[in-house]
Design brief:
Number of helices: 9
Distance between the termini: 53 Å
Number of strands: 5
Radius of gyration: 18 Å
Structural class: alpha+beta
Strand content: 15-25%
Strand order of the largest sheet: 2-1-3-4-5
Length: about 210
């Protein structure tokens, strides 16, 4: 490859840099996108894909570990969320994402970070996620509260009417489940915003 145009490569082309073409096709058929292939696949399932085998499966698992360590390094200094700035810093790694991703940050009663998890990935134009997807990890890990975050690949962090609608729905769901939604963070290449700061009316009665 003469020029560094990796950001324009398709998921299939990216996978083919590490596995045979037929394996890339089967992996994407099984897991829908390259993120799921790397981050959500099981070693046993991948190993059974034609053309894979132990060596190539191990390579994908090593890529997963690399991604995990990069994400950990990005947010390693943020252990307690004291406000929107901390939450924005925690999710700063989303700035470089080519597709919209929705994440949930799980907090304990003292706003210490328990963990974070991606719950949805979409296209360059958007991703969808239902309250059940957002709150499932929170309930599983017994989180006291959550912060939701997603990125705008366009770079503009201004919330859309859909972002505001989703926020209201999540706040309402959090009330019913006794797991408050403390904020909804939008990350863009050219800036980030906190809906709790910009639209506090969306959170009235949510905490």
């Amino acid at each position: 490859m003469d020029t560094l145009t990796f950001d324009t490569m398709t998921d299939k082309e990216l996978l083919q840099a590490f596995v045979p073409e037929r394996s890339a096709v089967e992996l994407l058929k099984e897991y829908q996108n390259v993120y799921n292939v790397v981050m959500e696949s099981s070693a046993s399932t991948v190993d059974a894909i034609p053309g894979m085998g132990n060596v190539k499966t191990k390579k994908l698992m090593l890529i997963r570990e690399l991604v995990n360590r990069v994400n950990d390094a990005t947010s390693k200094n943020v252990k307690v969320i004291n406000g929107p700035t901390d939450a924005i810093d925690y999710f700063s790694f989303l700035k470089s994402k080519p597709k919209e991703e929705v994440w949930v940050l799980l907090l304990n009663t003292k706003n210490h970070v328990i963990s974070s998890q991606m719950v949805s990935i979409g296209t360059i134009n958007g991703a969808t996620s239902e309250p059940r997807e957002i709150f499932q990890p929170a309930i599983h890990r017994l989180a006291a509260s959550i912060i939701v975050a997603h990125c705008h690949p366009s770079g503009d962090c201004a919330p859309s009417p859909e972002d505001e609608r989703v926020t209201m729905r999540l706040v309402q769901s959090g009330r019913l489940l006794a797991v408050p939604v403390l904020d909804h963070i939008i990350i863009g290449k050219y800036g980030s915003c906190s809906l709790k700061e910009d639209r506090p009316d969306l959170f009235i009665g949510g905490m």
